[in-house]
């Protein structure tokens, strides 16, 4: 079974976090939510989230993917945490998938993971960053090698479905999507 870490920082975008967690679990993927500390997380719209564990405990697990929800100031808190940068770099070195949505792709950029990659983000987040040979694209979801990025709350479901496709295949993605009755 695949295991995914979703770090939850104070001020994260709850729609993105919950959509990612919910859809991945529907696909039979183990999702570990981890707070940067031991406190409950107050998301950007005031929803209280209780992480499964702390980041320090979560990184002891064998992880197949890390997914960063966006939102502000949540993405800033992730970006300012050296443990997140270290984990992203380790997973990249192992060739494992790394994903970020909304404002969180800036964490990938600041960790040096978007050089020579195509990526997307919430409007205004990546376009003006000076990342060597990064190609910004205004698309809902973008996969470039092991990096998956997305635009924001409105693209969270498509983003989560792409994560499922990447981890467990198109058949499971199709089953999960069908059960959502999107059309």
From TrEMBL:
Pfam families: DJ-1_PfpI (PF01965)
Residue stretches making up the DJ-1/PfpI domain: 2-165
SUPFAM superfamilies: Class I glutamine amidotransferase-like
Domain of life: Bacteria
Family in the record: Belongs to the peptidase C56 family.
Name of protein: DJ-1/PfpI family protein
The organism of origin for this protein: Candidatus Marithioploca araucensis
């Amino acid at each position: 079974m695949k295991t995914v870490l979703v770090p939850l920082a104070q001020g994260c975008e709850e729609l993105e976090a919950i959509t990612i967690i919910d859809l991945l679990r529907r696909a039979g993927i183990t999702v570990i939510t981890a707070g940067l500390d031991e406190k409950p997380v107050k998301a950007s719209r005031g929803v209280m989230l209780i992480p499964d564990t702390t980041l320090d405990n979560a990184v002891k697990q064998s992880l197949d993917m890390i997914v960063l929800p966006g939102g502000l100031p949540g993405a800033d808190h992730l970006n300012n945490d050296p443990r997140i940068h270290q984990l992203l770099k380790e997973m990249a070195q192992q060739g494992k998938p790394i994903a970020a949505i909304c404002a969180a792709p800036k964490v990938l950029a600041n960790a040096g993971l978007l050089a020579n990659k195509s990526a997307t983000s919430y409007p205004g987040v990546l376009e003006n960053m000076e990342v060597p040979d990064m190609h910004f694209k205004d698309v809902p979801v973008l996969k470039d090698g092991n990096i998956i990025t997305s635009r924001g709350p409105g693209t969270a479901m498509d983003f989560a479905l792409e994560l499922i496709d990447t981890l467990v295949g198109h058949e499971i993605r199709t089953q999960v999507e069908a059960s959502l009755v999107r059309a």
